[in-house]
Write a structure and sequence with these properties.
Blueprint lengths: L12 E2 L2 H9 L4 E7 L2 E6 L2 E6 L2 H19 L6 E6 L11 E4 L7 E6 L2 E6 L13 H9 L4 E5 L5 H8 L3 E5 L3 H13 L8 E3 L3 H10 L4 E6 L4 E3 L5 E3 H15 E11 L6 H14 L3 E5 L14 E8 L1
Parallel strand pairs: 4-5, 9-10, 9-12, 10-11, 12-15
Antiparallel strand pairs: 1-2, 2-3, 3-4, 5-6, 7-8, 13-14, 15-17, 16-17
Helix pairs in contact: 3-4, 6-7, 7-8
The chain binds S-adenosylmethionine.
């Protein structure tokens, strides 16, 4: 755990009971609750996950949740509370720990976001199954009613489920067979047959050139890689250096009016960097396009979450 250094002027971003009710009206029970500079709390169905860099932050988030649930929500619902340490090094990541609630309940649960169901597993690893900061992008994709989606770095295939619910044929690619299997389960949870879609447990940088060779084309492509990873044959992926290569491959797979989501958690890459990179890539492929940034989410502070940009190709 890092040394205890309380931020001099802690900024607190919290939702109100009205937001909570609005999420419920939208059939959403997976959202942030409170964000501090060194951690945040999030609701996942009848569970609360307290993400913290230090013990002090964990205690502040827990105190906020107890006060919010008892006094502001006046909820009689039972919530399990988990804590998850946010280490500086990825190698030190561990699974969430149960802080309060019955240890006899299963670690798996389900959440709903805009009426779409997703499986959550508190015992699966550091990440529990759904990245809440992509809610607006998932909703946009579904609303566009795509015909063919290529979802790279698909994790539990949340983007694929949204596209499939809108009628798309989907191809989901992720190195992790376990994540891809959880993705197929998310299809089943939503009454979709995984047999009608493609799930590929392989390296995106091996699969994209093969799709290009086969002249496959997609009207929507999601590029949301991790900051660092080690792919097949030990190949290293580094978002800062490799995003552009990924985008060029995506442009070679795109239909003339395709929409491509470029997204990164890499703190060194700003949305303006994504725009410059996209302008360069479009120019080098002699393509035209416009950019769309999704609006702020009410449960996230302005600069929190992934930096994302939609590239809307124009014929
Ligand atoms: C940030 S998560 C993606 C989140 C996902 N887009 C979502 O919204 O749920 C990164 C994923 O990339 C996968 N991954 C990392 N390197 C990869 C590679 N070279 N090829 C395919 N998948 C990779 C990991 O297994 C992990 O599931």
């Amino acid at each position: 755990m890092v040394s205890e250094q309380p931020a001099p002027e802690e900024s607190v971003h919290t939702i109100s009971p009205a937001h909570w009710q609005q999420f419920a009206n939208e059939e959403t029970n997976a959202h942030r609750i409170c964000s501090l500079s060194q951690g945040w709390s999030e609701r996942l169905g009848n569970n609360v996950l307290l993400n913290h860099q230090t013990q002090t932050v964990l205690e502040s988030l827990d105190a906020h949740w107890q006060q919010f649930s008892a006094q502001e929500l006046q909820s009689s619902e039972e919530f399990r509370v988990f804590s998850r340490h946010l280490p500086r090094q990825n190698a030190e990541r561990s699974i969430p720990a149960l802080l309060r609630g019955s240890p006899d309940l299963p670690p798996e649960t389900e959440v709903v976001e805009n009426g779409v169901r997703y499986g959550i597993d508190f015992s699966a690893g550091y990440a529990v199954g759904l990245f809440l900061d992509q809610r607006a992008n998932r909703s946009l994709l579904r609303g566009w009613r795509p015909k063919r989606l290529l979802n790279t770095f698909a994790y539990t295939c949340s983007f694929s489920v949204c596209a499939a619910l809108a009628g798309a044929e989907t191809v989901s690619v992720d190195l992790s067979k376990k994540s891809i299997e959880r993705g197929a389960e998310n299809f089943r949870l939503n009454g979709l047959s995984p047999a009608d879609h493609r799930f590929v447990a392989d390296d995106v940088l091996d699969i994209m050139p093969k799709l290009i060779q086969r002249k496959e084309r997609f009207d929507s492509i999601v590029l949301d890689p991790p900051t660092f990873s080690r792919g097949s044959k030990g190949r290293r992926f580094n978002a800062e250096n490799d995003l552009e290569k990924l985008l060029l491959l995506a442009l070679d797979l795109a239909t003339p009016s395709a929409r491509i989501l470029l997204s990164t958690n890499c703190t060194r890459v700003r949305t303006s960097d994504l725009e410059s990179m996209s302008r360069f890539a479009l120019k080098s492929r002699r393509l035209n396009g416009q950019f769309l940034r999704t609006g702020a989410l009410p449960d996230f502070p302005p600069d929190a979450g992934a930096r994302t940009l939609w590239i809307m190709l124009r014929p």
